[in-house]
Structures are given as C-alpha cells and as structure tokens.
Amino acid sequence: MKVLHCPTETGGHAWGLSRAERALGVQSDVMVRHSSWLEFPCDVDLRLRDRSLPAGLLRLGWFFSHAVRRYDVFHFNWGMSLLDHRAWHVHHWDFPLLKRLGKRIIVTFQGCDARMKILSRERLSTSACAECDVAWCTPAMDQLRQKRIQKVCAYADHVFAVNPDLLHYLPGAEFLPYASVNPHEWIAGVASASPAAPAKPFRVLHMPTNRSIKGTKYVEQACTQLRAAGLPVDLMLVEGVPHWQVKELIARADVVVDQLLIGWYGALAVEAMAMGKPVLCYLRDDDLKRFVSFHERIPIVGTTKGTLVQDLRALLQSSTRRQVLGLAGRQFVLDVHDPMKIAQRTIAAYRG
Q1: What one-character DSSP code corresponds to residue 90?
Q2: How many Cβ atoms are within 10 Å of 176's Cβ, its own excluded?
C-alpha cells in the first residue's frame, strides 16, 4: 500500500501519521504545495509560492500525473485535494479521476475548512467565529464550505475531523485525535523541562496563530489582573516562531494556556502535556460528551474567558496540582495521542 498525505502541513498532523504508518509497514509520504513559516517537515515541497503562476501550474500538473501512477491512497488534509484552488473556483477537480482510477480517497478536516461561521455564532454562546477577525470569512464563504463538504462526502471513502465541533457539519465523519506529537520524543525533554520548583515570576505560555480565534486578549487581561493582585506572572506571548523552537519554549513555562473559544485543545496542548506541563483550555462539554469517547480522562483544566483569572490563579498557587496534572498529561498523551495507535485507525480506513 502506498499512501500520499497532501497538500498541506496543517499542525504537523500529516507528518506524524505518515511516520507512524511507515513504522507499521505502509509506504507513506507527505507532500505540500508550499511550506509555511511553521516549518513542519515533509517529503516533497513543490514550493509553488516561489514560482510564477504558469510554472506553478505545470509543476503541480507534473506532480499529479506522477502521484496517480505511484500511490494507491490519497489522504487529503484541510478539506482540500491536489487539483483544488478555492480562490479560482476550482473545487476538488481530481476527485472524479481518482475515483475512476480506483484510488482510495481519505479527507481530514482540521478547523475553519469545515466550521460554519454563521451557524456557530447562532448555536454557541462561546465560539471563535463570534470573535474572528478574518475578513474573508463571510456568509458567502459558509455557502462555499457547504458546497465543498458536499463534494467531499460524495467522493471520499472516509472522512476524519480532528476537532469535535466539526462533526456537526460533516455527516458520517469520524473524530480522530491529533497525531502530530510523538510522545516519546517530547517526553524525552521532560528532565530539563521540569525544575524542582518554578522560578518566580510564574511563566505562562500562550502561542496563538491567530489572536482573535484563540482568545488571546482574554489571556492578556487575566495575566494583567493577576499581576495587579500581587501574583508574579510573566506572560510568554509567542507568535511567528517555527515549530522546531516550540519544545524549548514549553520547557521554560510553568503553565500553558491554549485556546479559549474553539471548545477543544490544539496540538500545543498535546505537546505541553507530553512535557509534563499543566494546561488550561476551554473545552465545550456538549461536544465532548457527544463525540469524544475519552472526554472524562482529559487532564486539562477546563476554563472559560470569564473564569480564566480564578482558574489560572488556583493552578499557579498549587504546586501539587501542577505536578499531578503534569504526570497525568504525559500518560494521557501516551494513551490517546500516540501516532502509532492513531495510524492503525487510518490504515484500517485505507483498506476499507
């Protein structure tokens, strides 16, 4: 079996899955149209941003003709495909051909590729869509998302989602935990990451890729209030750094605050738990109970934008609780987010 993960590197999920699939005996590669500033690894980078439009199209066409001869399974990420460009009104043009050629089509949705802004704002009291400042995310974009999802569901052999709330918009999809973290590699950094006693001031790490979606202003406000109340807090607000620097930053932190509006934790939280760091995040109970089988085991301090100040204060003031959460987090990542375990599920989907 030969598997191609493409055409994005979102969150490093494809890379983690691909390496685990290789370890399980599947020939699995990762291709991206172009690498991002996060610098996640891949096997093939077409570097389309560095080429003119005609040259880029020729490069993409050449790769597609190569891929259909080489691979049996196409595992697409971010709800995309290879011959797919939303701005040019090109939507999954390769699906019919791949189907006729007998290829397996697997699609993973990872966030705003499926999340409907208007429906989220109407349905939820707390949502990233209510505070998102992305200009192109409009009702017209919701209609386009729906159109694209319908085509995916018509052609895909299996659909995954790595965020529980996306399952409201993806009929028949399966929830899949993040596979971006090799827990054994991250746990190896715990010895240097966990000093016997935290330095003062307490270091709170928050790493948004988009401030409005992650609820960054509430993290800033909480840390300001805690400092005003006399608690020594140093907010490590980190943006725009490549992924290979993340481990060092987590190692310096005492507590990690992940996202406060989406209702689920991100890859940063998994990395932090693997390194024994306590995490605070907004977890939407209704989605967890409905879609996440392991929801009662998640060792994350559930918080909200309204309760973050007291939740963060309580955690910083209890070294015992931080230690307990750190130990539980490492075990949780081993049990739930080990790419080897997740790859067994994707390989089963590839085989049908």
Answers
A1: B
A2: 21
* CA 313 remoteness from chain centre: 27
- Tokens representing 57? 């199209």
Q: For the chain, which domains are there? A: 2-180+339-351 (3.40.50), 183-336 (3.40.50.2000)
User: Do the bridges between strand 202-206 and strand 301-302 make them parallel or antiparallel, or are there none, so unpaired?
Assistant: unpaired
d(CA 115, CA 110): 9
Instruction: Report whether 160 contacts 249 (CB < 8 A).
Output: no
Nearest to 71, CA basis, from 173, 135, 134, 1? 1
Q: Which residues contact 257 (CB under 8 A, 6 or more apart)?
A: 204, 205, 206, 219, 279, 280, 281, 308, 312
* Cβ atoms 231, 101 nearer than 8 A: no
Q: Which residues of 262-272 are buried (b: 16+ CB within 10 A; e: fewer)?
A: bbbbbbbbbbb
Residue 330 one-letter amino acid: R
Instruction: Give the residue among 315, 284, 285 at the shortest CA–CA distance from 301.
Output: 315
Over residues 132-183, the pLDDT tens digits come to 989 889 999 999 999 999 999 999 999 999 999 999 999 999 999 999 998 8
